Amino acid sequence: SREPLLAFLRDTVLPHPWFRAVCAPGSGEVVGAVSVAPTAERCRGELGYVLARAHWGKGVAAAAVRRALRDVFAEVEGLRRVEALVDVDNPASQRVAEKAGLRREGVLRRHYWHKGHARDMVMYSFLASDPLPG
Asked: What angle is formed at CA 88 by the lines to CA 38 and CA 120, rounded to 5 degrees?
């Protein structure tokens, strides 16, 4: 059934202020997404990224995040900082953030509630004034 996909598009993607598909090199198949969500502070957005497991470890996510960083500051008025919170136990996602050019700022202890547990999160950031990665 296409209903879950259509519901996701209707309820999550379309109303989101900055949400982009990630396409596989070559095929153009949609294999993930990258988003920047507004926060309570106008100058700050929260980066999110997800990629199908079959495409992990190939640089696809880091390339998508780099492109998002290149585009989002020009497209979102007043945005000065993009930040990403990554679980301390997710080294692959931390590598994506670092390869994309985000700076590791530190660990926020017991910052996020996930599946019944308070999780430590690594804070990454990229500023509008930071040099864009190649």
From this structure: 70
Share of the chain above pLDDT 70, in %: 93
What is the chain's Cα-based Rg?
Answer: 15
pLDDT(94) > 80:
yes
First CA to last CA distance, the chain: 41
- By the 8 A CB rule, do 86 and 121 touch? yes
Confidence of residue 14 (pLDDT cuts 50, 70, 90): low
Predicted confidence at residue 3, as pLDDT, reads: 80
60 closest CA partner among 98, 25, 26, 103:
25
HEC-encoded secondary structure of 62-122: HHHHHHHHHHHHHHCCCCCEEEEEEECCCHHHHHHHHHCCCEEEEEEEEEEEECCEEEEEE
User: What confidence category does residue 6 fall into, taking pLDDT thresholds of 50, 70 and 90?
Assistant: confident
Q: CA–CA separation, 82 vs 6, rounded Å?
A: 29
